[in-house]
Specification:
Oligomer: heterotrimer
Distance between the termini of chain A: 10 Å
Radius of gyration of chain A: 20 Å
Low-confidence stretches of chain C: none
Structural class of chain C: alpha/beta
Largest sheet of chain A: none
CATH topology of the largest domain in chain C: Rossmann fold
Number of helices of chain C: 11
Mean pLDDT of chain A: 85
Largest sheet of chain C: 6 strands, mixed
Strand content of chain C: 15-25%
CATH superfamily of the largest domain in chain C: P-loop containing nucleotide triphosphate hydrolases
Chains: A mainly alpha (about 325), B mainly alpha (about 290), C alpha/beta (about 260)
Number of strands of chain A: 0
Helix content of chain A: over 70%
Largest interface: A-B, 39 and 38 residues
Structural class of chain A: mainly alpha
Number of strands of chain C: 10
Strand content of chain A: under 5%
Mean pLDDT of chain C: 87
Order of helices and strands of chain A: HHHHHHHHHHHHHH
CATH class of the largest domain in chain C: Alpha Beta
Radius of gyration of chain C: 19 Å
Helix content of chain C: 40-55%
CATH architecture of the largest domain in chain C: 3-Layer(aba) Sandwich
Number of helices of chain A: 14
């Protein structure tokens, strides 16, 4: 039948547990950095996957991260607002801009949508890189962004604290998106992805669904962007360009776009892989590329489907009906 | 701002654009036959550049002979890539995107390891300038532009008149119908991919003397190629030529008024406008 | 009249698919749309359900204009359809397909889905119950957990009908519901259609099986080359000279 209600709770619980135990095991700033980056990437890949679940490959996703980042950086350094306000304001700015951009981009679909969002992302990147240097820092970037200020007496200067902040944000996002995926929203999104014309004739306002996914995903990307700005404390337009966007796509697809858990597996595995490969220096990219090719050839539905495929083979051996695919409603 | 200056700017833009059109044609050919977008296309361009460097610059073989060699070599490389990697990915755009990305990284890192990171200059095959009606063009650029046009025409004739060419058009139009008529889809896919890459390789060989070769040289042409085929229409060959002329003209004129970094934004704005007003492209119908 | 077409025309490129078509569908009836191949029948369905735009004329449903509206809005007004090439969500289970169909009645939103409120859960539970009941009434109760793409043709057609019915529509438009079915399956399906009529649903269908059409329809409209050439009861149509002529060389309308 559909996925059991236990699965999402277990999945989220597992992530929360892993995230919580890490700082107990190590205070090494390197590991905390990697872990923080994984969590940040996870919010980005999960929100990207939300859009993919409605059939959109949004190559401008990273641009909204950038919009949130620059918005917060400027609101804090120029207007003097607190990070705790700009965290939501930055994401809000990203979401507000996502409405007109998404409405325009969603007038086309498929490869044309892919290309128009790619074009948008380049326009946004070139904008941050070449225009209003006084505000955005131009090609040399925007520096001097402060860390988050105090909140309720807690200080956020050190790596563990920042890690904790990102972990909380990530967990909220994961819970929300997993819930959404297991709900009617997820069911309808998958229907749109499979056959949007049929969904439309069944009463689904496909445009509104896709736009909702677009705007919501952009809000989350903006959130991640705000954190990024105050974590790295330096912003450069290349942080929001094709390379990081492509990595997001890779993480998500390698994990598997068919399941809400795909980005989790993909992000963790691929981030760890790239850290490990870093030791190889020149061969890093070569091996990374080879890994991509091999994974796509031998696990076309992503890593997350491997366990499903194995389970299916087991069931067939035992003579039972094959396990089900796709989103579902928890009982 | 004299007329001559404007026309000169246009001419410069067009000349270069014709080579980018070659790259675009290769990309759009692959798209129309295999229904996938090959992100590693720029790497085949780069390969053509390096073949030209090693054969022409170092061994001293005649430039045009080198060009032919580059085209053939890269074409074979393309066939190999299709057989090994892409042939199962017909129509699966997202997976093909990831795979071609992997191939891009493999080829680029491979080039860095094999050839080194630094630019390698390739000597000009032709010197001197040509003056016509107050307009100036270097002989080299003229040869490059004319060679590109020759290759474009050759492609057109190949697709129109030869059997494999017509088979490719049949598959591009309706693969199921083509299969029913006995066309070997696998062979056509491999050949199509090979021809597409060969065009990119030829473009790389043509531009090598102008811009030097480096492992990352494929990035810019492939972006231009994407802009061209979006504007012209994915899967449309006359569209690619039209798109190239348009891009060349816009960028040529734009260079008069703004810095080169800002000129790049023009191409993307063109893309956005086209995708909004006429998503299939100017000549599209794919 | 439940559905009314007034002077509807559709022209695409140089092709006039439908020309000045006027017809009405009475509520609680089973209305057949027939005609030789290429007569424009599927085009009419696409026009009614907003899949393609009209070139001229208007379409009224429950006295309100629906021509020019989005397909989703037309469905919300109370019209559902099936497609000639059975259109399902092939990766989903049978039940999931029907649940998508229940979209119109479940009235979902982002908020309730995120908050997983009690009212949301209740509505979903009821949609599930209705879905199971609907599947059972169409003989699909046993395969509710099967993946739709793996079903045999008869079940796929039944599922498409179930999805259309799940919307709670008053008018159900069926494009060749009997295609590819055995005689036994056809009889079962026409029995289902009669049951729907008893439940005060209205059915508009396109079919090539003349015997079935004449046997189950209350009214039949005949199209040829996008033009209406006859309309009336099955008996009237069977003896209509223009209809017989249109079919000469193709099928003969007959008992």
């Amino acid at each position: 039948m559909e996925r059991r209600a236990a699965a999402p709770v277990a999945g989220v619980g597992l992530i929360a547990l892993a995230a919580a135990t890490l700082p107990l095991i190590t205070r090494d700033s390197y590991y905390l950095d990697v872990a923080t980056t994984i969590l940040m990437n996870l919010t980005l890949t999960m929100s990207f996957r939300l859009q993919v679940s409605t059939g959109q490959i949004n190559m401008a996703h990273i641009s909204f991260m950038g919009i949130g980042a620059y918005a917060s950086a400027l609101l804090v350094t120029r207007v003097g607002l607190s990070f705790w306000a700009t965290l939501w304001l930055g994401a809000l700015v990203a979401a507000l801009l996502a409405v007109p951009i998404g409405s325009v981009a969603l007038r086309v679909s498929g490869p044309y949508y892919f290309l128009i969002t790619f074009a948008f992302s380049e326009v946004v990147r070139l904008f941050f890189n070449n225009f209003f240097e006084g505000l955005f820092g131009g090609p040399s970037g925007l520096v001097g962004i402060p860390k988050p200020g105090r909140l309720l007496g807690l200080v956020f200067d050190g790596k563990p604290a920042l890690y904790g902040l990102m972990a909380v944000l990530c967990l909220i996002v994961v819970v929300a998106l997993v819930r959404l995926d297991y709900s009617r929203f997820g069911l309808t999104a998958g229907a749109i992805r499979q056959a949007d014309l049929v969904a439309e004739t069944l009463g689904v306002n496909v445009f509104r669904y896709k736009l909702t996914a677009f705007v919501l995903g952009s809000f989350v990307a903006g959130l991640a962007g705000v954190f990024f700005a105050h974590f790295r404390q330096v912003l450069h337009s290349s942080d929001f360009g094709l390379e990081p966007m492509v990595l997001l796509v890779v993480f998500t697809v390698i994990g598997g776009t068919g399941s809400v858990w795909g980005p989790v597996i993909g992000t963790i595995v691929m981030t760890l892989a790239s850290e490990l490969l870093r030791e190889l220096h020149h061969y890093e990219i070569l091996v990374f590329g080879a890994v991509l090719i091999l994974t796509m050839l031998f696990a076309p539905e992503g890593l997350v489907a491997l366990s499903g495929a194995a389970r299916r083979r087991l069931r067939r051996l035992r003579g039972r009906a094959p396990a089900q695919a796709g989103a579902g409603l928890a009982p | 701002m004299s007329i001559e200056l404007l026309v000169q700017a246009l001419l410069n833009g067009f000349g270069l654009a014709m080579v980018y059109v070659l790259v675009a044609l290769g990309l759009t050919l692959i798209f129309s036959i295999l229904e996938i977008i090959n992100f590693a296309h720029g790497e085949f361009y780069m390969l053509g550049g390096y073949v030209t460097y090693y054969v022409y610059a170092l061994s001293g073989l005649n430039y045009f002979a080198t060009l032919v060699l580059a085209i053939l070599t890269v074409g074979v490389a393309g066939v190999v890539a299709e057989r090994l990697i892409f042939h199962d990915l017909r129509g699966k755009a997202l997976n093909a995107f990831i795979v071609s990305l992997g191939l891009l990284w493999v080829m680029q890192a491979g080039a860095q390891l094999a050839f080194g990171v630094l630019d390698k200059p390739v000597p000009s095959a032709f010197s001197g300038v040509v003056r016509v009606l107050g307009l100036v063009m270097s002989v080299e650029r003229l040869v490059v532009t004319l060679s590109a046009i020759v290759l474009i025409v050759a492609l057109y004739l190949f697709l129109r008149l030869s059997r494999p060419g017509r088979a490719m058009r049949a598959v591009a139009q309706d693969p199921d119908a083509a299969a029913l008529q006995g066309v070997n889809i696998d062979a056509v896919s491999a050949l199509g991919f090979g021809v597409g890459c060969a065009l990119a390789g030829g473009a790389g060989g043509l531009l090598a003397p102008l811009f030097a070769v480096s492992p990352a040289m494929g990035a810019l042409p492939v972006v231009k190629a994407f802009i061209i085929i979006i504007v012209g229409g994915m899967g449309s060959l006359p569209g690619a030529v039209l798109g190239g002329l348009l891009l060349g003209g816009v960028e040529g004129l734009g260079a008069l008024f703004m810095g080169s970094a800002a000129v790049n934004i023009l191409g993307f704005l063109m893309v956005i406008v086209v995708l909004l007003v006429r998503p299939r492209g100017l000549v599209g119908g794919a | 009249m439940l559905l009314e077409l007034r002077g509807v025309s559709q022209r695409f490129g140089g092709l006039q698919a439908v020309a000045d078509l006027s017809m009405t569908v009475a509520p609680g009836s089973i209305h057949g749309l027939i005609g030789p191949n290429g007569a424009g029948k599927s085009t009419v369905f696409n026009l009614i359900t907003g899949v393609i735009p009209l070139t001229a004329g208007e379409i009224l449903f429950k006295r309100e204009r629906i021509s020019g509206l989005r397909s989703a809005e037309i469905c919300r007004r109370g019209i559902a359809r099936t497609f000639q090439a059975t259109a399902l969500f092939r990766e989903y289970t049978v039940l999931q397909n029907v649940l998508v169909g229940a979209h119109r009645l479940a009235a979902p939103g982002l908020g309730p889905a995120l908050l997983w409120s009690a009212s949301y859960r209740e509505r979903e539970r009821r949609a599930r119950e209705r879905g199971h009941a609907l599947l059972k009434s169409l003989g699909l109760g046993a395969v509710a957990s099967q993946v739709a793409g793996q079903l045999p043709n008869r079940d796929q057609k039944a599922l498409a009908l179930a999805m259309a019915l799940a919307t709670g529509a008053e008018l159900v438009i069926l494009d060749e519901p009997l295609a590819g079915l055995t005689d036994q399956e056809k009889a079962e399906t026409t029995a289902v259609l009669r049951r729907l009529r008893e439940q005060s649903l209205t059915v508009l269908l396109v079919e090539h099986d003349m015997k079935a059409v004449m046997g189950v329809c209350d009214t039949v409209t005949v199209l040829d080359h996008g033009v209406r050439i006859a309309e009336g009861t099955p008996r009237e149509i069977q003896t209509n000279a223009a209809v017989i002529e249109a079919y000469l060389g193709a099928e003969e309308p007959g008992a």
